[in-house]
Amino acid sequence: MTAVSDVGRITGETATDVVEGEPLLEVDGLKKYFAQESGLLSGVSIDTSQFPPIDVGRERVKAVDDVSFDVRRGETLGLVGESGCGKSTLGRTILRLLEPTDGTIAFKGEDLAEMSGEALREKRAEMQMIFQDPQASLDPRMTVGRIIEEPMRAHDMLDDEGREARAKELLEKVGLDPHHYERHPHAFSGGQRQRVNLARALSVDPDFVVCDEPVSALDVSIQAQVLNTMDQLQDEFGLTYLFIAHDLSVIRHISDRVAVMYLGNIVELADKEELFENPQHPYTEALLESIPIPDPRKRNARGVLEGEVPSPVNPPSGCRFRTRCPRLIAPERYALTDEEWAHTRAFMRAVKRRTFEPTAAADLEREFFDGDLPSGEAGEIVADAIESIATDSERGAAGGTASAAADGGEVGADAVDWETATDLLLESFAERSICARERPAYEVDPAYGSGTHYAACHLHR
Ligand SMILES: Nc1ncnc2c1ncn2[C@@H]1O[C@H](COP(=O)(O)OP(=O)(O)OP(=O)(O)O)[C@@H](O)[C@H]1O
């Protein structure tokens, strides 16, 4: 049970309106697009849903694109994903530090997305944010006492004396010496400064705190101490956390449930143990496999995420992870065996990334297909792709690749037509996969506990 300390009770209202375990925050269909000014031509996009259909100079960065989840009172929901996948934007949009493009953000049943002016200002006391860089977020000219009192002053809470008493009490609660009330931020270490930030966030007695990479800038040894303090404060103050981090070991330490974000979407959400022990999305699996393994003999077992995160301006259709996914699903039309598809997929990825030196067609067939191309239409497509890149093929004569034949019909490694092969393979296989056609959203049976396990992957269809 959560015990709310006296220092927490200054507004006379302690979120008793939402019972522990019930949703405190319900996010539905949330989008945050940024307009991005860009170069003359790169900025021209065609949007047939409007008139005129051409939109000049404005591209939209789809940082958060249709995200739905809830955060239950008293829990810590971890939010993890690679850099640039939209975690900070999601956290800030929820707190209305950024204007949402679409969707609802229900906090204790009231839609923050619709709120403005005084109503929103009042709500802000109930929701606070802690940022990554404790240095940058503390004004060096102010004493820590004043820094902690600032939000109380902004929300007209208590009188001068009351604020000072509360600031000193909070210093103690976050593990600092109340006598340091008059000190300036520079007198504190990084970990201590983050504790000052915690005290400041708690000063207005919030129910909900978005913590954006709060320990990423700290030494590993200090991280655990600050996380433990955050844990204690959560119990004592009855707090609910949305905890953003790219570091899975930090997420594992602090979270009750974990949401995994990729390119503006939540791709998996489950109880912590379920997510770590029974991951069901290939992106989550890849993230877990890329946790550094201390034992150097096991390093080769590490999975590595291939390629770059695509641009959020023009994200892939269907499942956003499909362009990097090692488990892309075969298009139904070819009726490939698992082995044929595994070979085809590996070949397609290798061609796309140009990870091999082209050789004779028979060598490529041996290397990628054990000398045995898939049967039927798929096999013909693969044979055509091989034809485009093999060093012994008659590309010019086949008429497929004019560039190869342009200099006297000499076909060598430099005339290899990677582009034709890549386009052919991607159009025939990747673009015809269900992964490219439909956005996945499934619930799977949990192996650990009984919590809901959401996995946005068509492997669960
Ligand atoms: N003000 C902005 N204008 C345009 N694009 C933005 C803006 N803020 C963020 N973005 C873009 O939105 C995407 C998501 O960024 P965001 O910072 O939310 O990701 P993140 O997962 O928090 O990454 P990091 O951990 O690196 O902060 C990125 O492509 C980023 O470049």
From TrEMBL:
EC number(s) recorded for this UniProt protein: 3.6.3.24
Provenance organism: Halopiger xanaduensis (strain DSM 18323 / JCM 14033 / SH-6)
SUPFAM superfamilies per UniProt: P-loop containing nucleoside triphosphate hydrolases (SSF52540)
The name this protein goes by in its record: Oligopeptide/dipeptide ABC transporter, ATPase subunit
A Pfam family hit: oligo_HPY
Annotated ABC transporter domain residues: 46-288
NCBIfam families noted in UniProt: oligo_HPY (TIGR01727)
Gene Ontology terms describing biological process: peptide transport; transmembrane transport
Alphabetical UniProt keywords: ATP-binding, Hydrolase, Nucleotide-binding, Transport
First-tier enzyme category under EC: hydrolase
Family: Belongs to the ABC transporter superfamily.
PROSITE patterns listed in its UniProt record: ABC_TRANSPORTER_1, ABC_TRANSPORTER_2
InterPro entries attached to this UniProt entry: AAA+_ATPase, ABC_transp_ATP-bind, ABC_transporter-like_ATP-bd, ABC_transporter-like_CS, Oligopep_ABC_C, P-loop_NTPase
Gene Ontology molecular function, alphabetical: ATP binding; ATP hydrolysis activity
